[in-house]
Design a protein that fits this description.
The protein has 238 residues and is α/β, with parallel strands linked by helices.
């Protein structure tokens, strides 16, 4: 199926320009997916492994009849940690993206976020915007503290690659000590317990073997294609 696209230039309150994109099928869409990429992807036409996965997922979702909403995110170097301002801007752009396309939305609403994109979606759900989402899928998003969601969300899917290791300093005052490293089997359930809210969302955890932080193949063994699992979890399949 051909993917139709519509781009629109928008501006942050400080005047910074960025692009919003709507990908959609030829006929009326049967669902809407808000897709927020990881920190390694800032521009819609970026290049890299994460971009390829987002593009393939978008094509799969459009083939199923869904429309997909995306926008440019604040640029940052891969070696630079995300700042509080970066997270705020990400969330604000996604909120404006939803509001600007509300008149075109049809069917169920799913929110899908990778890594920092998932963190930005959690900011929205904490603020109650949107008031309701039918499904939320967070990939490689570690939730370290209690996050109180005011949006009505019946189901949250937490997805991690089996080789997505998370490290913390054993002692912040002593850089010589090796970090403490956790596997998804340890921190995934911990993240799930931190997702609470007014409407008590159900939270399910999925660990996909052979994949890394943003579900790119890594480690020994055959490469695994994450697309079928992701499309199923989003609840929009062809």
């Amino acid at each position: 199926m051909r993917v139709h696209r519509h781009h629109q230039w928008r501006r942050d309150p400080d005047g910074t320009a960025y692009r919003a994109r709507r990908s959609f099928p030829a006929g009326p869409p049967n669902a809407t997916v808000l897709l927020a990429g990881p920190g390694s992807v800032s521009l819609l036409d970026g290049e890299g492994r994460d971009d390829a996965l987002l593009e393939s997922l978008t094509a799969r979702l459009v083939a199923s009849g869904a429309q997909v909403l995306q926008c440019d995110m604040p640029a940052r170097a891969r070696t630079t940690p995300a700042s509080a301002a970066d997270g705020r801007i990400r969330a604000e752009r996604l909120e404006r993206l939803l509001d600007g396309n509300r008149h075109l939305m049809a069917g169920s609403l799913s929110l899908v976020g990778f890594s920092l994109g998932g963190q930005a979606l959690l900011r929205l759900l904490e603020s109650g915007s949107p008031p309701r989402a039918d499904r939320v899928v967070l990939i490689g998003t570690v939730v370290e503290t209690d996050t109180f969601l005011t949006s009505r969300v019946p189901l949250i899917e937490l997805v991690y690659g089996g080789f997505d290791l998370v490290g913390y300093l054993a002692d912040e005052s002593d850089d010589a000590l090796p970090p403490v490293v956790f596997e998804p089997a340890m921190y995934a359930d911990w993240s799930a317990r931190h997702l609470i809210g007014t409407h008590s969302p159900a939270v399910r955890v999925h660990v996909l073997d052979g994949l890394g932080h943003t579900l790119n193949p890594c480690g020994p063994g055959p490469a695994r294609d994450p697309l079928p699992a992701l499309a199923t979890l989003v609840g929009v399949t062809s």
